[in-house]
Amino acid sequence: MPIRELHTDSLQQQCASCRGLHTISFDALTVGIKNNRQVHAHGIAMPPCAHCGAREFVFPSKPDISPHPVLGSYGHRHRLLVDELQALLVRHGRFLQEAAADIGSSRPLSRRDRKRWFPNGLRLPVPSTEKDDPR
Ligand SMILES: [Zn+2]
Fold first, then answer.
1. Residue 109: which domain range?
2. Residues with CB under 5 A from ligand 1 (ion)
3. Could you tell me if residue 130 is inside a domain?
4. What is the pLDDT of residues 86-106, one digit of tens each?
């Protein structure tokens, strides 16, 4: 599930099941998930993993969400990346028309947060628990 790196028109994702790394073009992504007749505006479906077929989703934070409890943590920074991803996709016109009204204002990464939490670019390190994992 985790996004490892975010670029201007693609991202690098690590599959949570097989841990394969994939580069995914924004052309393969859409804000909004259609499930039968229901449309979930606050969700982005990743393409199925090329290795194991797992499907994963990321969920941008909703406008009324409270600040992350641990600023600077992996979870906090991943949330910032997902919100930035949503903003980039919306800017690229990559969203479901049915979801447009509910997406609302996206929240791109502010210059201050970018400088503070991503001084070396929009990438996240491998969480320390994974580093020792032989898989
Ligand atoms: Zn996989």
1. 3-120
2. 15, 17-18, 20, 49, 51-52, 54
3. no
4. 999 999 999 999 988 888 777
